[in-house]
Amino acid sequence: MTVGEGPALGQGVGRSAGATVDGDPSPPSEVRRVTASTFAGNTIEYYDFILYGSAAALIFGPLFFSNLSPTMAAIASFSTLATGYLCRPLGGLLFGYLGDRYGRKPTLLATMVLMGLATGLIGLLPTTSQVGIWAPVMLIALRLTQGIAVGGEWGGAALMTAEHAPPARRGWITAIGQAGQPSGGALAMGAMALVALLPGEQLLSWGWRIPFLVSFALLLIALYMRVRISESPLFEELQRAENSQRKHRRPVSELFLEHRGALLRGILVSIPPSLMVTLVSSFCVSYAVAAGFSRSTVLTAVGVAFATAIPTNPIYGHLSDRLGRRPVYAAGTLAVAVLVFPLFWAIDSGSTLWLFVAFIVAYALVAPAIGAGLAAILSEMFTTPVRFTGVSMSFQIGAIISGLFPVVATSLLVLGDQRPIWVAVLVLVIALLSTLIVTKIRESSGDRLTLDATEGIR
User: Fold this and answer.
1) Gyration radius of the chain's alpha carbons
2) Taking Cα atoms as reference points, which of 387, 25, 321, 381 lies closest to residue 171?
3) Per the database record, which ranges form the Major facilitator superfamily (MFS) profile domain (predicted)?
4) What is the average per-residue pLDDT within 215-224?
5) What is the pLDDT of residue 197?
6) What is the pTM of this model?
7) What CATH number is attached to the domain comprising 278?
8) How far from 425 is each of 255, 344, 394, 409, CA to CA, in Å?
9) Is the dihedral of CA 119, 120, 123, 126 positive or negative?
10) Domain for residue 246, yes or no?
11) 136 vs 401: CA distance, rounded Å
12) Fewest C-beta in 10 Å: which of 163, 194, 409, 447?
């Protein structure tokens, strides 16, 4: 099946009921351009977001909460990390509405600028020793801005690729875009690992700022790529149909009134992929340093795991096209359940080799099975008029659990007398529940994306 093959507006095709189309044909060159733009956008967005997570684990406690004990400073630092996740649904709602109402491309340009500026400005912040309480206040404000920006970015970038991709290859093509997440993580961890080599005084005075200031340059590169892509063909077809019938959509109200079931399912399947990111890039970083590894060693191990996950994401995306979204996702969640205890045993072993093996297996081999097909899964759950809002809200509400995880896990670590037994149990329970949930979701690989649930525009 080639890009753009399909029926006209109003014809029902495929396994899902209702009118389904692929939109106007997207040339292969445009599909490649959009995929590259999505990859670059995700790389930079997640460089910014994961950079904050690693800094929260290693740097922000003594800089912005120096008046607290080390344990309380760590919890406070992770709490600022959580505020970004709590704001992500707001960003998903705001930019989802704008993307469904006025277009995918301009909305994605806005989220990119907002994220890049917020991250760069973190690198210019004064610390608590310089301005007192205003330092953490400004840090939290910029973290909230990051959360709002990434709340709109992920969903828009995911569906932009999905709406250009041919149905038979949607899992693979969207997974290439999603490979930008580990790419951004690898860059963030590499940057932090380099500055962590500085003497402690230099690291805490000026070295930590450099990775954040780099975001200004990355923003310019991403904007150049993003302005060159075309608008989604499905969105353009929807606008033409809407204009001819003089109808106006209300994406937010339509989502909550008519697509509640899809939204709930989308939230539930979005929790494990986000959880794996925060587990590996934030909590396990802090835990491994406390276990005796140097900051630079831990960050390098996580960076290698992220880099290794770049090629494995498209592989799992391709498997989701061939085998189905559900079996690949379920295999990933079951692997998490099996391997979560060995993950902590490897860290506790004190062996650098086992540390690297643990992070690579967790993030490069297991996590992509859950996350690589998520963009396709969520895009296939919603119709075009509410797809931006639906995909964004599903992913970002699910991500709230992930944002709270480091705080909860650190508290469970204290409860377990610094042993991770209860943290591992929590991850195990979430993984098993997720495996059960995904078996209840309809298989959608190969489906054409739905323009609207009924013929024409309501």
Assistant:
1) 21
2) 321
3) 34-443
4) 88
5) 84
6) 0.79
7) 1.20.1250.20
8) 35, 11, 25, 10
9) negative
10) no
11) 23
12) 194
Please give the structure tokens belonging to residue 367. Answer: 């996590």
A 10 A CB-CB count for 342 gives: 15
**The pLDDT of residue 326:** 92
Q: For tokens 């989308």, what's the residue?
A: 266
Quote the pLDDT of residue 329: 94
Cβ count near 247 (within 10 Å): 12
Q: How many domains does one find in the chain?
A: 1
Look up tokens 């954040």; give the residue: 212
Give the model confidence (pLDDT) of 134-183 as tens digits: 988 999 899 899 889 988 888 888 888 998 888 889 999 999 988 988 89
Asked if residue 456 has pLDDT above 70, the reply is no
* pLDDT, tens only, 352-405: 999 999 999 998 999 999 998 899 999 998 988 889 899 999 988 888 877 778
pLDDT of residue 311: 94
Q: Report if residue 219 sits inside a domain.
A: yes
Does any domain span residue 244?
no
* 36: amino acid identity, one letter: A
Place of tokens 């351009």: 33
The pLDDT value given to residue 249: 65
The residue segments making up the domain with residue 126 are 25-231+252-452
Token reading at 180 = 């930008």
Answer yes or no: is 18 within a domain. no
Q: Encode the chain in three state secondary structure.
A: CCCCCCCCCCCCCCCCCCEECCCCCCCHHHHHHHHHHHHHHHHHHHHHHHHHHHHHHHCHHHHHCCCCCHHHHHHHHHHHHHHHHHHHHHHHHHHHHHHHHHCHHHHHHHHHHHHHHHHHHHCCCCCHHHHCCHHHHHHHHHHHHHHHHHHHHHHHHHHHHHHHCCHHHHHHHHHHHHCHHHHHHHHHHHHHHHHCCCCHHHHHHHHCHHHHHHHHHHHHHHHHHHCCCCCCHHHHHHHHHHHHHCCCCCHHHHHHHHCHHHHHHHHHHHHHHHHHHHHHHHHHHHHHHHCCCCHHHHHHHHHHHHHHHHHHHHHHHHHHHHHCHHHHHHHHHHHHHHHHHHHHHHHHCCCHHHHHHHHHHHHHHHHHHHHCCHHHHHHCCCCHHHHHHHHHHHHHHHHHHHHHHHHHHHHHHHHCCCCCHHHHHHHHHHHHHHHHHHCCCCCCCCCCCEEECCCCCC
